[in-house]
Amino acid sequence: MKITAIETLLMHAGGPPTTSIATNPTAQSGSVWAARNWLFVKVHTDAGIVGIGECSGWPRIVETAVRDLAPLLVGQDPTHIERLWGRMMGAMMGHGMLGTVGAGAMTGIDMALWDIKGKALGTPVWNLLGGKVRERIRVYGHAGTPERARELVGRGFTAIKTGGLSNPVERVAAIREAVGDDVDLMVDMHGPPWLTTKDAILLGRALEPFKLLFFEDPVAPENRNGLKRVQDAVTIPIAAGERLATIWGERELIEQELVDVIQPDTGRAGGITQMRKIAAMAEAHFISMAPHSGSLGPVGEYAALHLLAAIPNALILERIEDDVAVRDQVIWPVPKVVDGHIEVPDRPGLGVEIDEAIVARHPSLGNVSVPGHPDDGAYEPGSWDEHVYVQSRFRRQRYFAP
Ligand SMILES: [Mg+2]
Q: What CATH code is carried by the domain that includes residue 101?
């Protein structure tokens, strides 16, 4: 079998176009995801088998990277996945492109190669990874308010994450009160460079009574010393890794046990080939895996379901299920959350199909949004400069509301 062509499918997967910086450069409000895209990859073969994958990272840039990588792969045998991954890595290494953008491009292709291998052998990807450890994958939803948290619990979710950028302690207390003690809660601080290690520790200690499942990105992931200080000072499990890629990017978090939960993004960490190795590295350090999916679409979610089915240290999968109206229209079969879990797919390969007509009806609008709400990214209208002030009075008031 030989690869004959690589095709990309890019679509807008954000809010209404009026909040996109591409159509309204002066926008000061709107979701952080207003100009978000999903990028799907199709790898064609001379056997008639087509593999499907997805890249996150920064999709419009990643799309160009995927197209530029294609000549390296056309004419190659798609079943030698590790060899082809190395071929792509060798080509990108000299450009310094092994972060989430370069790894994002390799991810979609790698995912499609696993899909091809599974389809060719007539078996699901989880079977290629060693077989099933579990029949269903636990997922968590996102809630910023007690009302939203209650709604998610009503839909069957048993775990909920909330953003920590404004009044995290007060917010968690309200959500805990609303959903009771049987629901797992998590807090994501998003690792902003302006949140100091001392403040992260103060917040972490204040959150300890709520028995969180994890405390995510309490400081910037690049701040390894800060992460170690938070890890040593706070008893809540620490989670990080979504902004890093490949075994080399995630290595220090794991080797130095700076985290209890590793969170590579299934769409930009380097593909299933890298994710399974990261999982094994984590397993050796008693660290569990909870893949990041915050900006990922539904094909990447399928890859995560196969991976988590097969690794022993799978903790939980992030799921933002009503972010985009067409999430459940662009692919089939559509995964359903039942009792807080998604059933592991059973069809050959990844077992997911794309509706290209839906992709075509949602052309990409841009690659950058202007976050307008504090919950989205902490930008305040008219005060972009806030970002450069570490520990400003304004910010500390938001973290530590009276
Ligand atoms: Mg996060």
A: 3.30.390.10
Of the candidates 190, 306, 341, 362, the residue annotated as catalytic is: 190
The neighbouring-strand residues paired with 41 are 8, 53
Residue 60: exposure state from Cβ atoms within 10 A (0-12, 13-18, ≥19): middle
CA of 322 to the centre of ligand 1 (A): 17
Distance 185 CA to ligand 1 centre (A): 14
Q: What is the pTM of this model?
A: 0.92
The answer on 162 and 243 residing in a single domain is yes
Range of the domain at 306: 127-350
Instruction: Judge if 12 and 150 occupy the same domain.
Output: no
User: Any catalytic annotation for residue 190?
Assistant: yes
Structure tokens at 324: 């985009």
What length does the chain have? 402
- The answer to whether residues 367 and 58 touch, using CB atoms and an 8 Å cutoff, is yes
Residue in 238, 179, 178 with CA at minimum distance from that of residue 207: 238
Alpha-carbon distance of 16 to 299, in angstroms, equals 22
Contact 332, 352 (CB under 8 A): yes
- Alpha carbon distance 252, 358 (integer Å): 41
Q: Which residues surround ligand 1, an ion (CB under 5 A)?
A: 188
Residues in the chain predicted with pLDDT less than 50, given as ranges, are 17-30, 372-391
Q: How many domains are there within the chain?
A: 2
| Secondary structure (3-state) at 400 | coil
Parallel, antiparallel, or unpaired for β 337-338 and 341-343? antiparallel
Are 108 and 67 in a shared domain? yes
| Distance in Å, CA 4 to ligand 1 centroid | 37
292 as an active site residue: the answer is yes
